[in-house]
């Protein structure tokens, strides 16, 4: 039977994929046959990630650029399409977290969070979608968050940015679905990564989390791969504007 989840011969650009969830998704999608274009802000780190992937027999290319700079993004996407090939799937993964009480949140850190988590999704998607529209084919997957729906102490700018990514997902779906482009989001719950290291090590938080989550545990980042494969493959060709929560049931529990 034909493998409807196959990513054979698909080129997938993943932003911020030199480490963390992005790198894990890179490996998971490559396992299904995808060629991975690794973006990161640092060239050295992008190349290091590519070396790790190619050493495991996967096909991968480095595409370092700063996702927050619109012109740099446009030039980088043109370069990828010309030198590596058509981008079949874009995964907007790059993201940052900053924590301060609301009344003390510094302006520059608000600007940084909005630039990386929100504006960059607009810039990169716009540049990539222009070519997808011409080809009448493409998939965009935005990495959202529990905070696309729920607020949380000390991270209001992050929640605002991830709420915006939810609406970017829906807006892009409305405008791009007619060109056979599917735009969806993955909303991870709480996963053990560099970004959450401080929380994982905080016993009080971990006790609260296990009580609050129906699955009663932290997520392992590998558990995001299935959702990414589904939304990047032909298996999701009529799924559009959807946020797939991978959260151990947290969103639906009081
Ligand atoms: P991470 O380990 O910090 O990885 C983020 C990557 O993005 C880093 O490699 C970083 O590069 C890169 N990046 C930052 N700014 C960039 C820029 N301007 N241009 C290009 N690349 C840039 O984070 P993660 O935990 O894997 O998170 C990945 C995504 O999942 C984020 O969107 C995050 O909000 C989301 N998420 C994570 C969790 C979780 O539990 N960890 C939960 C929900 C959602 P440098 O390190 O070199 O700056």
TrEMBL record:
**Per the UniProt record, which EC number(s) apply here?**
1.1.1.69
Q: Does the keyword Iron apply?
A: no
Q: Name one GO molecular function term.
A: gluconate 5-dehydrogenase activity
What InterPro entries does UniProt report for this protein, alphabetically? NAD(P)-bd_dom_sf, Sc_DH/Rdtase_CS, SDR_fam
Name the reaction it catalyses: D-gluconate + NAD(+) = 5-dehydro-D-gluconate + NADH + H(+); D-gluconate + NADP(+) = 5-dehydro-D-gluconate + NADPH + H(+)
Alphabetically sorted, this entry's keywords are: Carbohydrate metabolism, NAD, NADP, Oxidoreductase
**Principal EC category:** oxidoreductase
The answer to keyword 4Fe-4S applying to this record is: no
Name the pathway it acts in: Carbohydrate acid metabolism; L-idonate degradation
State the similarity comment. Answer: Belongs to the short-chain dehydrogenases/reductases (SDR) family.
User: Which purpose does this protein serve, as stated in its record?
Assistant: Catalyzes the reduction of 5-keto-D-gluconate to D-gluconate, using either NADH or NADPH. Is likely involved in an L-idonate degradation pathway that allows E.coli to utilize L-idonate as the sole carbon and energy source. Is also able to catalyze the reverse reaction in vitro, but the D-gluconate oxidation by the enzyme can only proceed with NAD.
- In Swiss-Prot or TrEMBL terms, this protein is called 5-keto-D-gluconate 5-reductase
Organism per entry: Musicola paradisiaca (strain Ech703) (Dickeya paradisiaca)
């Amino acid at each position: 039977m034909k493998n409807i989840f196959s990513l054979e011969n698909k080129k997938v650009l993943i932003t911020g994929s030199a480490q963390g969830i992005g790198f894990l998704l890179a490996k998971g999608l490559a396992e299904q046959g995808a060629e991975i274009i690794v973006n990161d802000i640092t060239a050295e780190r992008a190349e290091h990630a590519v070396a790790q992937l190619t050493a495991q027999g996967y096909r991968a290319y480095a595409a370092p650029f700063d996702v927050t700079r619109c012109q740099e993004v446009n030039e980088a996407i043109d370069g990828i399409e010309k030198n590596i090939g058509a981008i079949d799937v874009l995964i907007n993964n790059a993201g940052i977290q900053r924590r301060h009480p609301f009344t003390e949140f510094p302006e520059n850190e608000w600007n940084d969070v909005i630039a990386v988590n929100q504006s960059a999704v607009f810039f990169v998607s716009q540049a990539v979608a222009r070519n997808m529209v011409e080809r009448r084919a493409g998939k965009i997957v935005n990495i959202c968050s529990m905070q696309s729906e729920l607020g949380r102490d000390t991270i209001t700018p992050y929640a605002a940015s991830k709420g915006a990514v939810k609406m970017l997902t829906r807006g892009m779906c409305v405008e791009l679905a007619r060109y056979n482009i599917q735009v969806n989001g993955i909303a991870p719950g709480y996963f053990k990564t560099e970004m959450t290291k401080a929380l994982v090590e905080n016993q009080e938080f971990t006790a609260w989390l296990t009580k609050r989550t129906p699955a009663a545990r932290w997520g392992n980042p590998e558990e995001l791969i299935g959702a990414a494969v589904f939304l990047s493959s032909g298996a999701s060709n009529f799924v559009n504007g959807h946020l797939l929560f991978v959260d151990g049931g947290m969103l639906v529990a009081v």
